[in-house]
Fold this sequence. Notes:
- By secondary structure, this protein is mainly β.
- 7% of the residues lie in helices and 37% in strands.
- β18 and β19 (197-198) form a beta hairpin.
Amino acid sequence: MEGKDAVVIVWLLLLTVASDRVKGTWSQFYHLRGRLIFQEEFDTLNTSRWQHIITAWRGGNNEFEYYTDRPENSYVRDGVLHIRPTLTADRFGQDFLYNGTLDLWPEGCNVNYNGGCVATSDEDIINPIQSARMRTINSFSFTYGTVEIRAKMPRGDWIWPAMWMMPTENRFGPWPRSGEIDIVEIRANNDFTCRNKQMGNTLMGSTLHFGTDAQHNVWRPTHYEAVLEEGDFASDFHVFGLQRLPQSIRFYVDGILIGEITPPDGGFWEVGQLDRDPGGPNIWGNGTTMTPFDYPFHFILNVAVGGNFFPDGCINHQFQKPWSTKIKQQMLPFWEKRHEWLPTWNLQHGDGASNALQVDYIRVYEYDPNDTVDWYWYQRGLASNSLVDSQRLNV
């Protein structure tokens, strides 16, 4: 979530999922579930547990939203958390985007990076999207254990939901030196393809980020994807899982293992070939093979819109991407094409929540090798009833 390369090189696992049932060739993996150490059922929105980020900083991907704690953007309904993007103009009016100043200090701005507490329309319009981002940095972190998140993804062009984790302390320095764990991210477009590969809401990704600096942000060897051959991730709830173990990290969807990394003796320094580029001493050399992922991380939930996560040169099968990542002014052309993308958000239909990330629960089970082992079935990957074993694709 912090920074994504526009080039997508992935490990693609094609899955057939319908009503939590998967057909194909099956194997087993053990799922250690110890004591329940974190349980969020979202009966209410507990602001003592979940800290809202309030900022207009556009992040490492130059997104188009600003984050707020307003109730239209984060709320609980029927035991489900909703994080929903809305229009800044609905709050301030359209003229504000072109001529206003968004001062978030009175609202409790807590991220002033790159002047994120005050946004002006000097070089581009004011961030045209209002959304929410929440974290547990002050209430809960953990190192080893199993995470289960039951969630439904949003639907709508250029929406980017993320459920991820960051280190509670940057022990090795700023991003990505101390790591990042992306449990699930999607592009919420209905039909978005890059080089003839579907990259919209039928596909989800899980990723580890690590490296020495933003120019050496390693993610390709630790990026895993699952594609639904029936339906999409915005139609139903799915259980997204993460296992953090002393020797490995695993990602799964509905009990299906989609990716696993067990670092060699050289740890993530070797995985990322950082001895070749940039070279120099191993910044994690005094740790374990799992460093920097052997320290406490906390949860982050957010819904972003636009930015560099949507590559140039891809095809959106109705209206094309209205901005280019190669030019500085990106929010203005995005906003002025709102008649193309806004109808896909369905803001005026039903409960108005189809463009929301919906989270039913988050549960974390402590890692304890002495606890009972539960066995879960998984498949390595399925395409047209034939086994696909972690095929590397360039898309």
